[in-house]
Model the fold of this input.
Amino acid sequence: MSLNLMADINQTFLDLQEKISNHTAIVGVVGLGYVGLPFAVEKAKVGFTVLGIEQNPLRAERVNQVDNYITDVNNEDLKQVVKGGKLKAFPGFDHVPEMDVIVICVPTPLTKNLTPNLNYIENVTQKIAHQLKPGQLVTLESTTYPGTTDEVIRPMLEQISGLKQGEDFFLAHSPERVDPGNKRYTTKNTSKVVGASDGHSLEIATLFYEQTIEHVVPVTSAKAAELVKVFENTFRAVNIALVNELALLCDRMNLNVWEVLDAANTKPFGIMPFYPGPGVGGHCIPIDPHYLEWKAKEFNFETHFIALAGEINRKMPEFVREKARRVLNNLGIAPAKAKVLVIGVAYKKDLGDWRESPAIAVIDYLLEDNVNVVYHDPYVPEIEAQGQMFYSVELTDETIAVADLVIIATDHSQIDYINLVEKAKAVLDTRGVTRLLKCDREKVTLL
Ligand code: SAJ
Done:
């Protein structure tokens, strides 16, 4: 490499380093969802000017009007950065040339065949590539298979822009680690892994993340960083499947899986609490491990744990249907004659996200059995199931008492479960939330 070129690289690198260190860098965040918006606010709070790119124009406008739609974002923080001119959202990519750092936080869903769907990533990468400038840092936060950054994003950026990674622009992967609804661990105090396939990119990306995150963990490649995140979610999917399988076995053995798990978790070391449930929802745990499963096949490698975990976790909504049928049968009520009240439709407690929620799968099964279903969820005013719209009913003693069976599908903290059991004819508790309460145990069937 010629000395001039080396000098140019150094100057490009030094200029960006300076702007990141003194927070004068302009930061672009592509995708203002549950990952992107909290990230954008954190960067704006320390003085960076943040330009959000949000494909949904209504969401972009809501950001600019300080109409917060992400529960993990503090309304006052959002107001402060927007009114202070530090955060502005746009529906398009026109401002990419002004940006020094571009952070990609778009969804990575699955196709119907459980294979990776990189459409969002490819679409935004193409738009960025057409306007990429020397001296810019691009980082990918979306959870994806090892190789996406180096084998999909890098070639698109280099071929379309004619620029070279590590010399003209910098590229890294830093997987998001947002636990939606977690009040203790936020974007700021959750350690963050950063990986890149060249030294300059790794150094500059690490510096960037260190500006707002207390502990940054560099790894030697983008692939390693991608694999770290997919492993984290595979770890959860497999352990959740393990306790779900235990629940299925305990049902056969007529044992109480909650008693077994609560006792096992008294061991002070070598175990970690996971609990059975109606299935696994959200846009991470049921999805991300299959990105690794798909990539592993390229190496002629079968990731059996991932496949089996997915199979067991997807079986749980049908198991709830079967248990509900048994309870109704014991009451002498045919499903087609039954009134069922489902408590909670969000994919996990104390939030309103019902995407991929197992509770929706349970409701679908109940509707297939011609059950008369209503639901109550304080966080979710309406849902669609089997092509029908359903609206959350008010939770009153009457709506509880009129049901032949109450199914607890999501264990929101604010529900009065003691009163629920007292007023109900029968309860199917798929979350074990009533197991330690002083209530009429005769009425309650645990998963
Ligand atoms: N679930 C169980 N049993 C359990 C734990 C969870 O049935 O013992 C169910 C939940 O009800 C939910 C699903 O699994 O339907 C996923 O729950 P989750 O909390 O594991 O997943 P997310 O998607 O809300 O958040 C996770 C993060 N969670 C934690 O680390 C606790 C983490 O895996 C990722 O940082 C994040 O997804 C992400 O974005 O990848």
Observations:
- The mean pLDDT is 95.
- Residues 143, 176-180, 232-233, 236, 240, 274-275, 277, 280-282, 284-285, 347-348 surround SAJ (CB under 6 Å).
- The chain has two domains: 3-220, 236-446.
- The radius of gyration is 25 Å.
